Amino acid sequence: MSDESGSFDYDVIVIGSGPGGYVCAIRAAQLGLKTACVESRETLGGTCLNVGCIPSKALLQASEKFEEANHALSNFGVEVGRVKLNLPTMLSHKDKVVEANVKGVEFLFKKNKIDWLKGHGSLQGGGRVEVKGQKAAKTYSAKQIVIASGSTHVDLPGLTVDEKQIVSSTGALDLPKVPKHLVVVGGGYIGLEMGSVWLRLGAKVTVVEFLDRIVPTMDGEIGKQFQRILGKQGMAFKLGTKVTGAKTGKQGVSLTVEPAKGGDAEEIKADVVLVAIGRKPFTEGLGLEAAGVETDERGRIVTDSHFKTSAEGVYAIGDAIVGPMLAHKAEEEGVAVAESLAGLPGHVNYETVPGIVYTWPEVASVGPTEEELKAKDVDYRVGKFPFTANGRARAAGSTDGFVKIIADRRSDRILAAHIIGPEAGTLIHEVVVAMEFGGSAEDLARSFHGHPTLNEAVKEAALAVDGRPIHI
């Protein structure tokens, strides 16, 4: 605690050790600030590393390999015989990946001399944070406090999550056996990713979505193609449908659904139901109100452009504030706030935040959708190129999808890019870099792209903006 001379235990205390929090703590320590990070879990890394981004990608990768061995390798002349699923080993692989990542963060804390304050942190006002551990509570003081508390899943009325029959994304990572029928409530990133995992492993998967399309925040053309491809893989969809109730029993779950716009109800039987309708800021028990930290109508912490809250010396980043709930967004905000606390000009360019769905094929986007540009009367041009015309995609047997680049008609500055296809999450980043430098479609079109690579599809889409693609 601070003494009468006004000294503090730390320059910065970060509450939460997810991608936003741990990155913020590391950057602050790099800049010479005495830093501590409060985390109540037994391991560092927050939701993302423990029960979110990292374990889900481990299962996606593993299930892709199972699917490939089952259905695709023979196309390349690789005969593997009968393929058998060993689910315990697959889940163990996931756990080992998580363990390596969280231990990596712990190593980085030690390397950068960051103190891990183990327990639940809450604001006490006046630069003080109380940390309640398993045995006792202790109060620490800091010149500046950064809230990086992350988010949690949104519950749906009538569906009580028990993490056995009705699960959140956390429970969907540890199902003890492949369900015969998995119903996913929500057609967004998380639901489609986890649905894809269990679909590949043998489950029947039905996605129930309230709106009339999946991935509603993404470009409409991409969404239609995405649904078509997932449908070919065997995923079923009930769009424009709402869930009104659920009953659990020994035989599974009986869901009651009806058209979102009104109509007759029907029953869907499932072994497991995954509720993936979104996430909300996790601010429970942080003492926000008592400390004078303002929140909005959705429970998000209100900040200014420099991440300052309404309480003196308190900042907030990541899923706890407005903006897309993405790990990389939180990371950049963590770096920006740490640098600003050290007297540097911290900044985040929200125009270049990419969004990625890690299904197969992947879906990635940066910038506004075509629908959003039309609504704003922006004069633009579009260039598209299909992976069916890309040599590397043909060689890999992954020709579904296309690259779509949107540029301003007058200046040719790249406004957005939307990709569905192999390695879309990797390909999108050359467009992100181009946009960060204010690049044009012509800049991309004139840049060398090695042959044969998937990236050539990005170059061709850039050429197509000017109506001169070479290979189609």
Summarize the topology.
Layout: E1 10-15, H1 19-30, E2 35-39, H2 46-51, H3 53-71, H4 87-111, E3 115-118, E4 120-125, E5 128-132, E6 137-147, E7 151-153, E8 166-167, H5 169-172, E9 181-185, H6 189-200, E10 204-209, H7 220-233, E11 236-239, E12 241-249, E13 252-259, E14 266-270, E15 272-275, E16 279-281, H8 288-291, E17 314-316, H9 327-341, E18 355-357, E19 362-366, H10 370-375, E20 380-386, H11 391-396, E21 402-408, E22 414-421, H12 424-436, H13 441-446, H14 456-465
Parallel strand pairs: 1-2, 1-6, 2-3, 6-17, 8-15, 9-10, 9-15, 10-11
Antiparallel strand pairs: 4-5, 5-6, 7-16, 12-13, 13-14, 18-19, 19-22, 20-21, 21-22
Helix pairs in contact: 1-9, 3-4, 3-6
Number of strands: 22
What's the Cα radius of gyration?
A: 24 Å
Distance between the termini: 68 Å
Number of helices: 14
